[in-house]
Amino acid sequence: MSRNSLRLRLILAGAVAIVLTLGLSTIGLSYLFVRHVERVAVDDLQSRAMALASMVEISAGSPPRLVDPPPDPLFRQPFSGHYWQVSLGDEMRRSRSLWDYQLPAPDDLAAPGQTRVLSLPGPQGEALLVVEQSLLVDHDGTRLPLRILVATDRDALDLAEQGFLRDLMPFLVILGALLLTAFWMQIRVGLRPLSQVSNRVRALTTGDRARIGTDLPDEVVPLSRQIDELLDARDAELLRARHRAADLAHGFKTPLQALLGDAEKLRDQGQDGLAGSIETVVGSMRRLVDRELTRARIQSDLTTAEAEPETVINRVVQVLRRMPRGADLGWHVSAGSHLRARIDPDDLTEALGALLENAMRHAESAVWIDVTGSGSSVQITIRDDGPGVPADDLQRMTKRGVRLDQSGEGQGIGLAIVHDIIDAADGQVALENAGPGLRVTITLHAR
């Protein structure tokens, strides 16, 4: 795919969108996971804080005091990452895991009965997630503030987040691959109508279709209609141009005939030189007019054109055999009756007539015509046993006005007409020396 490919642009845009979406989804899922883990951790710390409230012992006749907490190995191992600190009035007790470190609690207390979540530094400088539970202990009308701090190392939360991301990444990669595959398939399906339009435009050039048509998706129909309207306008303009060329050529015929009459009168008056000059010029102009008439008759609509080369060849050869020169030659025709070419029969007759007449004029004893088919094409080969053509002149033979036989009467436009006809049928003309003679091969699309 090239840089200007629409499919490549859509794939790149889709890939960028999918990568951004998955990236934002990863950030969002990670944030939600951390919030959830932190919420679970806070609930656990809050439960432990309420359990530590049982450290307050109230006895009759003595003020409340703190006793040993329930045994928990997490809080007995030094620097385990799990800590508690309980303050009742001026009395404070700490978990053994804090060793000799005191949690730097804020000076202000939470409202009695309320829970507050804090972030405090730990004994080794680590970040701690701390839940503060504030209570009041009532004894003999005196209320003592009870502050319970329960903390856990935030590294455990970070490790949980990293583990979650490690587990999530393979699924994100698989999801991204599936999304890219689905997006690529969507692009293929979505752009398939453009391929249909391309195929139909190609069919227009080969003559397999007359118009693109409207049996396409709704989004492509306006484009197909515009192309069909353009083709209609082109065909109408070509038809008008052919009519104008034909009218112009016909319009020249009457004045040219009048000039021939004047030349005849001059000849009667003894002015043979002037009469001959006029007749030469008029002859040249008439041949050019005949060529323009031929070009005006060339059919450009290949959708319905169909010719049987064998029938056309036999008809042309039958005419040439009536000529003195043609009667002396051997005509060898080899053609399959089942072969059909995509060209107007009259156009093919015009082209083969010019080529076979040229072969007749230069042949020594025989002319060979072979018609073969190969796949989607039909080849018509014409060969004579004449002297052939100099190699340097082969490429010049289809150019307008080129004369290789300076002794003949033609104006060098016969092969140019052949080229125009075959080119209009989207075919090809190839010339080569056959040793002896000249071989002309016409390649046409098969029906």
Automatic annotation (TrEMBL):
Keyword Secreted annotated: no
Alphabetically ordered keywords of this record: Kinase, Membrane, Phosphoprotein, Transferase, Transmembrane, Transmembrane helix
Catalytic activity: ATP + protein L-histidine = ADP + protein N-phospho-L-histidine
Domain Histidine kinase: 247-447
GO cellular component, one term: plasma membrane
EC number: 2.7.13.3
SMART domains xrefs: HATPase_c (SM00387)
A Pfam family the protein falls into: HATPase_c
InterPro entries assigned to the protein according to its UniProt record, in alphabetical order: HATPase_C_sf, HATPase_dom, His_kinase_dom, HisK_dim/P_dom, HisK_dim/P_sf, TCS_sensor_his_kinase
Example GO molecular function: phosphorelay sensor kinase activity
Class of this enzyme: transferase
Keyword presence, Transmembrane helix: yes
PROSITE patterns for this protein: HIS_KIN (PS50109)
Transmembrane segments: 12-34, 168-185
Name the record gives this protein: histidine kinase
Origin species: Paracoccus caeni
